[in-house]
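worker-03 picked up job from queue 'complexes'. Input manifest follows; two sequence lines, order preserved.
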Amino acid sequence: MIVMECEKFHDQIIEYSEGELDESARPTVEEHLKKCPQCARFLSDIGQIQESFTFEAPNPGQAYFDSLTNRVMTQVRASKEDTRIRRAIRWLTASLWRPTAVLAPVAVAVAAALYILAGNVVPDGFIGEDDINAIASLAEQYSPERMLGFAPISLNEENTNFTDEQFDSMASVLYASRDDAEGVAEVPDAYNAVSNIDPGAGVYSSSYSELSEVEFDKLHEHLVKTMDSWVI
Amino acid sequence: MTRSPAINKDETTRDDARLIRAFLDGDEIAFEKIVRRYRQMVYFAAIKMVNNHDDADDVAQKTFISAYKNLKGFQGKSSLKTWLFRITMNYSKNLVRDRRRHVGQEVEENTATYQPDIQQRLEKAEQRQSIALALKSLPPRQREVFHLRAQQDLSYAEISEVIGCSVSAAKVNYHYAVKALREIFAPESAVMKG
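worker-03 finished. Artifact:
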């Protein structure tokens, strides 16, 4: 029966309609299409079906695609900073478990790092009063006061994932905070953030302390939360 | 419907591999090149799923951010293009699902409905409804393959990578879908099949 025979051609006709039929099979299919109205109709039908489902979305244009690219790149750069901050936080919070490795101004350093890496970098190393206030405020936010009386560790490039420039900026902030806390005290918030902890001994007191696991987790959670609020 | 042959596929794959290596070595510009190379593909794949520019833009951004974060884990089992395509599809499907769930808005996931011109929209409304119903009547795998082939313009090889089946299975599913749709839209002709 001719209809049953036609069915054998249908798969090939679909491929033919897509221009994907093997070269060697084409003459046979074309020959059949010429003499078989049902298959010619099949070809026409599926062509229309394929056509009706084809969807050409309006092209938003070059300017849009450039803008998309720029926005993506801005976000990935921000996420790169995010990764750097996370690494720094991981390192700094992990260090809290080492009794001798806990630094008095660790919280200030963390605050400084977050502050700088959040985009408030001071290119020329100058630390303004606003910067100090902001950093001190951050340090106060997530540092249990007792943390700030811990012993110093060496905070150097090897210990961090910061670039040299970032490290220098962070160090500048750290030293400025220390100077303020040691007596200049023209910035009350910064002074309070560090000196209230151990008013007698000063910032670099070597009174050691360890955080409990709960406190550690709480601090870590707070740090990450603070950081997340800054990241796009 | 004729597709252009993949003449430069090998070259593209080599370029992609080079860009990925450079990116993993820390070259951020390489990633930007990847974005530039695939931004249109990603955007158009998204808009065909989510049906409006703003959502497609959102999906495109998320796709590339996700690619940036996960490129390290890209094993090259599929091409970069289909890898990005899969991410795009996943974000698009999530968005459509969330939209249905939270807004209750009727969205035809597999139907091309984006038309900026209101009159055109009205004129095509009936056709769209028929198309949507027809697509819904297909088994899920056939529907997906048909969408990828007819609407996303993927090759069978790409479809096989995207949904994880053989090339021949992709082709068979597409053929079944086309025949089934023909029976729906031209039942008087299909009757001839006997």
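worker-03 released lock.
The interface with chain B takes residues 1, 3-4, 6-7, 10-11, 14, 17-20, 38, 41-42, 45-55, 57-58, 60, 65, 68-69, 71-73, 75-77, 79 of chain A (CB under 8 Å).
The radius of gyration of chain A is 34 Å.
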